[in-house]
Structures are given as structure tokens and as C-alpha cells.
Amino acid sequence: MTASKLKPTAEGRVPFTIPGKEHLSCSTYYKVFGDLSSDAPRVVVLHGGPGGGHEYLLSFAQLWERYGLPVVLYDQIGCGQSTHLPETAGDTNFWQEPLFVAELDNLLDHLHLRDGPGFHLLGQSWGGILASSFAASRPRGLQRLVLASALASMQLSIQSIKMCQKQLPLEMQKAIDKAVQEGVYEGPAFLEAASVFQKTFIIREDPLPAEMVQAFKNLTEDKTVYGTMFGPSVFNCNGSLAPWTSIPRLHTITAPTLVYNGEFDTSGDIGQVPFFELIPRVRWITFPNGGHMCHLEQANGLAERVLTVVGDFLDQHGRTYD
């Protein structure tokens, strides 16, 4: 069954009171695929961006059909069908990691996901950044962790993106540098370079899957979260996330962890090494010919391989960690 044909078994909104902003009436939109009362750990999926929304990760809902693992996807605060807060644009004190940790804690408690068999956590890109931080606190109920095209620090992210940029033709590299220097990201030379960059390193699938089109729509229709936390462009990280790092906390992660990225990923190997060196129980897989969204890339069966690797790792029935 393809992701587009999967139907949620439940969906709803969880009331969310933001610490320090009790006057705001907020909610988190979520979808469930499968039976949360089953004896299998639930897979909670954290999307990237920040601000990308859950749709581009719908293919992981197939973990219910194939492995009997219930899946929970949700839109983080500020995007998708969750509460938007455009009045907070530019507020770098507000848009910080603890906000999203509080939201995740709230979701887990509301759906009782810590109880019984507990839960797995799968974070992609920024979602992996959040997942690594959350796992480092050793939350009750966490069974296994998947860091999908994540990065151990934003400085490593910046370096990795620069390394990708240097693989472009020189004229395109100059167009990108010029756009960053001038703060103008609309010129034809920049847009052409950005398009080639996207097709080479972000998602190597043409035409774009509908799920990815929706993610880009989420990011462009409300730039509050991405613009404040990351910056005006993937090539210019100057937002509240710029100094972020998980490296000092990685050694405290006790959950068995799968780290993966793509060969051509903007989350390059330089950003995975700290995960591999510092998380006590960890595997690292790099998928050949994959980009940042290799779970959506169908060429040579790549998306299928990603789903199988993740599913086999999370399926604990009769398996031990080695």
C-alpha cells in the first residue's frame, strides 16, 4: 500500500499551553495510523523544517501495515494544521528548542504514549535535531531512536551545506554567495542555482512527490518558524538555531539508535560523526545516491530500502540489539 492510500485511524488536536504564554490558546494537530492500544511500541514521527509539517513523512505510516507498529504524526506548533503564531515572527527568545520539547511532552502525555509498550522516536532533519535533544533527557517510555538526515550541531549543518554548495558549478556558487551577501533571494541566477541544489542534495526525485510539494507550501505560506529559527535561506543560517548543539548531551542517550543519511545529503557525514562516536548504542547507514529526502526517492528502490531498514530496526519482536 502506498503512502497516498493510507488513511488515519484517528486524528485530532491536543490543547497545548505554552510555558510562559498561558494566555495563548494553542493546539497540536496529530494523526494516528494503527491501534495505539496494541502491544507494540508506537512510532512518533518528528518533521523537519522547522515548519515543514507532517505530510512529507507519511510514507512512514506504512510501518503499521508492514510491521504492526502504530504511527503518530503531528504538525509542530507554528505550522500545518497546528496553531500558527505569526505575531511571534523574529522572536528568537520564543522560538527555541524547549518550546518543541514541551509540545512533544504534552502530546506524549495526552495520548498516553509513555505507558505500556512505550514509544519509538523518529526525527527527520530538524526533527532529528529535536529527537536527539529529547532522547538525551532519557524520557520515560522511549524504546528506540531513529535520527534521519539529522545533524549533531548547527555549525556542522552549516559546514555540510557549504560542502554541498562547493560541488555546484562555480557560477552557481557565486550566485548563491551574492544572494547571501545582499540578502536578496529572488534573482534568476540564484533561483537557478537553488533549483539545481535542491534537485542534487535535498530531494533527488523529479517530479516532486505531492507530499514534498505540501512541505514546501507549508514553509512558504508561513515563514514565521523557519525564518526565525533557521534564517532567510538554507544558505544563510542566522536564526535562533544557529548556536544549537547536541554534542555535549549525546553520551546520555540510552535508547538504541539508528542514524542514517544519504550519499548526497545536505546532512553530510560530517554532521553524523558525533552521533556515531558519542551515542553508546548506535548504527549508522548511508544510502547510496540518496539526498536529504531519501525516504521519498524512488529511483533504484531507495525509498523502499529506507522503510525496510527503519522498520527492521524498530521491530523488536524476537530481535535483540547488536
UniProtKB/TrEMBL annotation:
Keywords: Hydrolase. InterPro entries: AB_hydrolase_1, AB_hydrolase_fold, Carboxylesterase_BioH, Peptidase_S33, Pro_imino_pep. GO terms for molecular function: peptidase activity. The keyword Acyltransferase does not apply. Residues 41-297 form the AB hydrolase-1 domain. Pfam families: Abhydrolase_1. GO terms for biological process: proteolysis. Belongs to the peptidase S33 family. NCBIfam families: pro_imino_pep_2. This is Alpha/Beta hydrolase protein. It comes from Rhypophila decipiens.
